[in-house]
Fold this sequence. Notes:
By secondary structure, the chain is an alpha/beta fold. It folds into two domains: 14-98, GMP Synthetase, Chain A, domain 3; 114-352, Rossmann fold (3-Layer(aba) Sandwich), CATH 3.40.50.300. The chain contains 13 helices and 16 strands. The protein has helices spanning 14-22, 33-36, 63-75, 90-104, 127-140, 157-161, 201-213, 233-241, 255-270, 301-309, 321-329, 333-336, 341-352, and strands at 2-6, 39-44, 49-56, 80-87, 114-119, 145-149, 169-170, 173-174, 177-179, 182-186, 222-226, 246-251, 275-281, 285-286, 293-294, 313-317. The strands form four sheets. The protein has an eight-stranded mixed β-sheet, with helices on both faces. Strands 1-4-3-2 form a four-stranded mixed β-sheet. A two-stranded antiparallel sheet has the order 7-8. It is globular. It starts with a strand and ends in a 22-residue tail after the last helix. Adenosine-5'-triphosphate is lined by residues 120, 123-129, 151, 154, 156, 229, 281-282, 317, 319-320, 323-324, 327, 342. It holds the Pfam family FeS_assembly_P.
Amino acid sequence: MSVLTRRRGPAVDPAAVRAAVDAVVDPELGRPLGELGAVDEVTHGRGGRVLVRVATPTHDVAPELVAAVRAAAEGAGAGRVAVETTPMTPRRRAELAERLAAAAAPRPGGPAPRVYAVASGKGGVGKSTVTANLATALAASGQRVGLIDADVWGYSVPQLFGVRRHPVVLGEKMQPVRAHGVALMSTGFFVDEDDPVIWRGPMLHKALQQFVTDVAWGPLDVLLVDLPPGTGDATLSVLELLPDAALLAVTTPQTAARVVARRVVRMATESGAPLAGVVENMAGTVCVSCGETSAVFGSGGGELLADEAGTTLLGRVPLDVPLREAGDRGVPVVLDAPGAPSARELTRVAATLPARRRSLVGRALPLTVCAPRT
Length: 374
Ligand SMILES: Nc1ncnc2c1ncn2[C@@H]1O[C@H](COP(=O)(O)OP(=O)(O)OP(=O)(O)O)[C@@H](O)[C@H]1O
């Protein structure tokens, strides 16, 4: 593939162009191209023309990669930029897998990630939206964040992050798909949007296990797991696969939602999972014309659930239009409209999530050792 653009500019400094292209972060692998050894050639011609050849792990090249390389070369003074991409040979792919493994290797004695399994009793209470925004807010604060979409049938992470592509496979490991600073894995990356996912029991468990152990997560500070609603097989599998996960319950203020959420909380505590807290979502809305707050879904459900479970109400996220619009656009509201009431509360909740739990001290989770093998 080759893409040309024209631009007039000052005299080109080849070293500056090379440095700028090397610094471009591969959108799929999350590392600079120079570090990946992926920049094969930067050739300078007459009139500021520059040809950049980049080797990619697959034929399926992310359009953002080409755009970012071109923008970087132009930003460094190149006048007319052609970007050519070529798929790597199997040998180069194997070398790349080794390079990534070395970069992602956990430091001995380094801290284990905090793991939060985000659950709700009923569907549609905003669990996935809350998870996506907490993950994005944590990543924006400088933490290395992973998100597993364990809602294998009703996955919504690809839509919420505005990304839909197959994960790159290097060696025996899948690379997480990256968007808005978060490393993601979802069934939605493997199937067409309209295809029904009909996994049950052992297949479901196996898929979730692969998301934990066969993905090259690299070192993470936080891992969030978006559970399906209710007390089904997937929730049990996640609690079994990630025994260090703390349960974060999402409910609306409504009694019906709280009562069902109570069952999930009970199931988690019976299986030994500690509670990270409760987030009440859709907690009232402010009328844009009259300024009055109305409690569309009632009030008090989050506080009551937290009291009943002996945990903390971490926050009350209002129902607002910017959050819904951002979700539809594929950009979490904490980035899309950080000043919106919902975004402010979600950012605050992310900053107050319980920092570290007793059971994690000195323990390494399996996902910290999932560097790619060749
Ligand atoms: N605070 C909010 N304000 C406005 N809209 C919201 C809010 N929270 C969620 N929504 C909207 O509600 C709908 C359901 O949200 P979401 O998909 O996150 O729920 P869920 O609990 O994960 O559902 P399920 O478990 O069934 O997948 C989405 O359209 C989302 O944009």
